[in-house]
Design goal:
Blueprint (H helix, E strand, L loop, with lengths): L3 E6 L4 H12 L3 E6 L7 H11 L1 H4 L5 H5 L9 H10 L8 E4 L2 E4 L3 H8 L2
Parallel strand pairs: 1-2
Antiparallel strand pairs: 1-3, 3-4
Helix pairs in contact: 2-5
């Protein structure tokens, strides 16, 4: 069975471009979802939350996080999930999925495990 990876991110994100390049160099088929064009569904985000927790998905250093004044926000996990679905620029990218395996951010060691190199 051919390996296929789904990557959620933006074209402007350097780490997302690195992930796309990593898989392209290894001839792994990728399905890129540009979060500026189509946000991830709450169901898709929930997969990542179940594995990593909602805090791991939030890009607290990002420009959008500061613009929205969320530094002192005390939201429930469910409310954060709604917020992340509505505001995809708050996500730490890329979010990568290979079958049931998941990774967030620059997880090159995890990506290597997926491709067996």
């Amino acid at each position: 069975m051919a390996l296929e990876v789904q990557i959620f991110g933006t074209k402007k994100c350097q780490v997302t471009r690195k992930a796309l390049r990593f898989f392209a160099e290894r001839r792994v088929k990728t399905h890129f979802v540009d979060l500026q064009v189509r946000p991830a569904s709450p169901g898709e985000l929930r997969r990542f939350v179940q594995k990593f927790g909602v805090a791991a998905l939030i890009d607290r250093e990002g420009k959008r996080f500061a613009e929205l004044g969320l530094r002192s926000a005390a939201l429930s996990d469910e409310r954060w999930l709604e917020r992340l679905a509505d505001e995809p620029m708050l996500l730490r990218t890329p979010l990568a999925r290979c079958q049931q395996r998941l990774a967030i951010g620059a997880a090159e060691s995890t990506w290597k495990e997926w491709v067996g190199k």
